[in-house]
Write a structure and sequence with these properties.
Helix content is about 45%, strand content about 15%. The chain is α/β, with parallel strands linked by helices. Strands 1, 2, 3, 4, 5, 6, 7, 8, 9, 10 and 11 form an eleven-stranded parallel sheet that branches. Pfam families: Bac_luciferase (PF00296).
Length: about 325
């Protein structure tokens, strides 16, 4: 099991620790470093900055939002950064949800998310292969565009720049069972939002047809500390925000996922409290047991025991959100 460093997206401003953490991760032998985006900082710019200050570590978008860019624009970002980094890019993509897609990007959330994802991936694959003009007879991403409101002058094109690699690894952030199953067919890997090494059966059917070499790369908060309850507080705060705030009462993919993992009643309670404006109560209502299962928190000995569970399962890459170099070093030592 390889280790990766997940830096996430910026808060109020750039985090001055991120570059030092990325360099330390590379020095310690971590395989990859990942950036993200929500509705603030973007994934590609921060990753390019890290690429310029490292030499070996692979560079992942975890995740870049599909609604933020047309598939050809994403492919342009990918081939450009892959060239500049010497072939180190891992392209992680996700649909996000209706609240972000419609509220931030001003676009309709696709009525058929699986179809929209397939078209998006197909377009990127065509760009990177560069074996002809890109053409997609699609419902969501048609190329060339032939809509009634167009000029009819659109021309199928292939990229001017020759991609460094036609096979840039493409991973998808999928949550629903059908979406995960499709991911095993059209992508090179999967970026789970929550992963419990104690509940791998939740995903068994969806992953049944995963081909050899398929990447499974979940993210997990990791911190070496004496007080487990205190160390879990950032995990619970994250869960409270995602389960309560990243969606509406009638449609929240993150709450649905927590429910499928055996915490249905707790997920709905967290969601209700958050939507009522009782955010601190929502965070406290996140079960410690769930937060603990999906993270690596506590003294070194405890983390060693729990890391063994992650290594025993199908995870190929563990992407850790670690706040300090000491935690990065401990995990590297334990995973060696």
């Amino acid at each position: 099991m390889r280790l990766g460093l997940a830096l996430g997206y910026w808060g109020r401003g750039p985090d001055p620790r991120h570059l030092d953490l990325a360099r330390e991760a590379e020095r310690l032998g971590y395989d990859s470093v990942w950036t993200a985006e929500a509705w603030g900082s973007d994934a590609f710019t921060a990753l390019t900055w890290i690429a310029a200050h490292t030499s070996r570590i692979r560079l992942g978008t975890g995740i870049a939002q599909m609604a933020a860019r047309t598939p050809t624009a994403t492919a342009m970002h990918a081939l450009t950064l892959d060239h500049l980094s010497g072939g180190r890019l891992l392209l992680g993509l996700g649909l996000s949800g209706p609240q972000v897609v419609e509220g931030w990007y001003g676009r309709p959330f696709p009525k058929s998310p699986l179809t929209a994802t397939r078209e998006y991936v197909d377009t990127i694959r065509q760009v990177l292969r560069r074996d002809g003009p890109v053409q997609v007879d699609g419902l969501f991403h048609p190329l060339p565009y032939r809509g009634a409101d167009g000029t009819g002058l659109g021309k199928a094109l292939k990229p001017i720049t020759h991609p460094l690699r036609a096979g840039i690894p493409l991973l998808l952030g999928a949550e629903g069972p059908r979406n995960i199953a499709q991911t095993t067919r059209i992508a090179d890997g999967w970026l789970p939002l929550y992963w419990s090494p104690q509940r791998t059966g939740v995903y068994r059917d969806a992953l049944a047809d995963a081909p050899p070499g398929f990447l499974i790369a979940p993210m997990a908060r990791a911190v070496v500390c004496d007080d487990v309850a205190e160390g879990l507080l950032p995990v619970k705060a994250m869960l409270g925000f995602y389960i309560g705030g990243m969606g509406a009462a009638a449609k929240n993919f993150h709450a649905d996922l927590m429910a499928r993992m055996g915490f249905a009643e707790e997920a709905r309670r967290v969601q209700r409290l958050f939507l009522e404006g009782r955010r601190e109560e929502a965070v406290r209502a996140v079960p410690d047991a769930f937060a603990d299962e999906i993270s690596l928190v506590g003294p070194r000995e405890r983390i060693a025991e729990r890391l063994a569970l992650w290594r025993a399962g199908p995870v190929t890459d563990l992407l850790v959100t670690a706040p300090d170099p000491q935690t990065l070093r401990v995990l590297a030592e334990l995973n060696s």
